Amino acid sequence: MEEGRFLQWGVFRSLLAILQWWGFNVTVIIMNKWIFQKLDFKFPLSVSCVHFICSSIGAYLVIKVLKLKPLIAVDPEDRWKRIFPMSFVFCINIVLGNVSLRYIPVSFMQTIKSFTPATTVFLQWLVWRKYFDRRIWASLVPIVGGILLTSVTELSFNMFGFCAALFGCLATSTKTILAESLLHGYKFDSINTVYYMAPFATMILAVPALLLEGNGVMDWFHAHSAPWAALIIIFSSGVLAFCLNFSIFYVIHSTTAVTFNVAGNLKVAVAVLISWLIFRNPISGLNAVGCGITLLGCTFYGYVRHMLSQQTPGTPRTPRTPRKKMELLPLVNNEKFDDKVDFNT
Question: Where is each Sugar phosphate transporter domain found (predicted)?
Answer without folding.
Answer: 15-301
